[in-house]
Write a structure and sequence with these properties.
By secondary structure, the protein is mainly α. It has a domain of 116 residues. The protein is elongated and about 100 Å long. It starts with 49 loop residues before the first helix and ends with a helix.
């Protein structure tokens, strides 16, 4: 059959006749011994569990947010009603008061050396109740705080912290 113009020219294929070089086996060594898992030491040296530190950081951030939220809501209501909303200021300023208490508590938790404080479930419940004023972040932090307070390591830390002060 004659070749068409579109077909490429045929290239002859030659078989490979050179012998392959011998391959040396790869030496198998013993696998490294497993390293036992250990928790890294706490950086502060105070023995504060990570959950307590997370609780303190969440509380201080939530305190700042509560202060900003309370001030902005109070300002918006007072200015939005041409100063007639000043009658509502005692109610709308409550997140600010909660925020101040949260910051004070968190600073005591983060102090070095740690100050003796007890788990503040009241503060966590007030954070949850702050959802009434529309602050959802505070409610989430309050629920997490109650969950953290129920942890055995956190309870033991607070017992140890308060027994050292007595």
């Amino acid at each position: 059959m004659p070749a068409k113009k579109s077909d490429p020219p045929a290239v002859p294929v030659e078989p490979i006749t050179a012998p392959a070089e011998p391959v040396s086996p790869i030496p198998v060594s013993e696998p490294p011994a497993p390293v036992p898992f250990s928790t890294p030491p706490l950086p502060s040296g105070s023995g504060m569990p990570g959950m307590v530190q997370a609780l303190a950081i969440m509380t201080i951030i939530n305190g700042i947010l509560n202060i900003l939220y309370g001030v902005s809501v109070t300002t918006a209501i007072v200015l939005g009603t041409f100063f007639l909303g000043i009658l509502c200021a005692p109610i709308t300023i409550l997140p600010v008061i909660l925020g101040i208490f949260e910051i004070i508590y968190a600073i005591k938790l983060l102090a070095n050396p740690p100050q003796p404080v007890k788990p503040s479930q009241t503060l966590a419940i007030l954070e949850i109740v702050a959802v009434i004023s529309g602050n959802i972040i505070s409610a989430v932090v309050g629920v997490l705080a109650l969950v953290f307070y129920a942890d055995a390591n956190v309870k033991a830390y607070f017992v140890r912290l308060n027994s050292q002060s007595s």
